[in-house]
Amino acid sequence: DVKVTQSSRYLVKRTGEKVFLECVQDMDHENMFWYRQDPGLGLRLIYFSYDVKMKEKGDIPEGYSVSREKKERFSLILESASTNQTSMYLCASSPGQGGHEQYFGPGTRLTVT
Amino acid sequence: GEDVEQSLFLSVREGDSSVINCTYTDSSSTYLYWYKQEPGAGLQLLTYIFSNMDMKQDQRLTVLLNKKDKHLSLRIADTQTGDSAIYFCAETPLGGKLIFGQGTELSVKP
Question: Which residues in chain B land under pLDDT 50?
Answer without folding.
Answer: none
